[in-house]
Amino acid sequence: MDDIKIKLSLLPDLPGCYLMKDENNTIIYVGKAKNLKNRVRSYFHGAHNLKTTKLVSEIRDFEYIITASNKEAFVLEINLIKEHNPKYNIMLKDDKTYPFIALTKEKHPRLIVTRVPRKKQNAKYFGPYPNVQAARRTVDILNEHFPLRKCNHIPNKECLYFHMHQCVAPCINKEPIDYSKYIKEITDFLNGKVVDVLNDLKAKMEEASKNLDFERAMDYRDQINSIMSTVDPQKISLNNFSSCDFIGTYEKDDNLAIHILIMRSGSIVCNYNTIIPIYGDILETFENFLLQYYNPSLVPKEIYLDNVNNLDLLSEVLETVVKTPQKGHKRELLDMANSNAKKDLETKFHIYENKVLKRVETIEKLGKLLNIKTPNYIESFDNSNLFGEYPISALVVYKNGQPVPSLFRKYHIKTVEGANDYASMQEVVYRRYLHLLMEDKPLPDLLLMDGGEIQVNAAKRVLSELNVSIPVAGIQKDNHHKAEYLYYEGKLISVERNSDVFLFLANVSQRVHDFAISFFRSNKVKGMFASILDEIAGLGPKRKEALLKKFITIDAIKKASVEELEEAGMPKNIAINIYEYFKEKEEE
User: Fold this and answer.
1) Which residue has the higher pLDDT, 192 or 383?
2) pTM metric for this prediction
């Protein structure tokens, strides 16, 4: 920390980017600043929201890069985020946007559908479009009407499209080809001027219908519908708007909801919405999102938004017009985007609160069923071994009815020899709760054993020796390893199947079982499996892999019938060998 204090005192009053690092020297956050000294020092002084406090608690060092201007800091920040992928920075998915229709600017242009826009100078883009199937169909229709090149690479001879009059065949036509007329008509079409093409298709549809060629008429009808759904699916239209986005925002509880209304050809064609966490300054978080969301090679002609101070700088970096409208239709659309952002966040919170409420109600019911206080903190164990060898135990933790994977634990059983589930459970329970007592950590409200009377009694005996009072119940299972009863205080308690409590218990049982199985699926334990299976004649690497993929554990293979082994891909004679091998093991 002393090193950080020294570095803070040496920070310059200049623009640039800073990189926060954790104890492993890993970059966990990248930010930009007009004034590095003021911005970086703010992390280590004063109060922060919960998310920023969590970030600051992990900072052990930082670096910074001075830039010549705020614009350079904007650009550098995004490059650093893409390079280092810090865990506390927003990283948008590649499929965040809808597809575009591109008219390439090659010598012999093509029409294509793409989700990854190239540079502006390589193509002219239209979109994005919410319906990718309709967009592709529209490209097909345009390719039928306009004889542009269809192939990726120009071949040595003409293809079928030339004979269908859908390509001017630059492969054999060595004379200069004037595409300007086609490009203008396609551009007009994709900008919404579709009347001529639609009238032509409608005339063809009516002609085909008159000639009783209903199949062709239906094809024309589908082409018309595709065009309409691609270039005119809008319910909101405004005049004199060619290409612009309205970006609404709403902030609550350290979360920022963003809702973008996307307008193309004068009409709202689709939207994009997301909710991102706020680390530090909300304005910086929002700007960070904008710089990642907009591909530098393709942005709308205008972007409208609120709550941004750096409008001129954003305009310069994004190479477009960024404004805050004050009145009129643009203000109304931005207000609509803001309202949608608010609704998005409220909906998320409502869904989350309902889930939390349901979880709380479920564990309250479980407490009443067992006549104990509400078990807000639950731990559950499951044991497993390979014929008494390599015994392990798994522990899962639930708090407020929700699993907490960071608190899950795995144990190698150290003092027990052979398949002794009772003794194994005693060992792991002793180790777990002695550890909690020694570190003065909270004890669970309920201990759920993934099993019945044996496991429960083993745990209760150890807890008694430790002078610890924790209610212990067992999730007793049927022959298919499914939760069936709750064993508590010497009684089997029936839980209504498909009730909230039953589903919760089944979830705990399955999760602790799966967690234990994941231990066996590690490379080390796979080697243990292999060593046992090596003793069976006829089992090579591929067959062993097939068995483990099908049954996962040796115990499951042991219980399998000859027919089930055959279903796993074993020849009948090998299946018999496996079955008889484990039968003999049981009898020994």
Assistant:
1) 383
2) 0.54
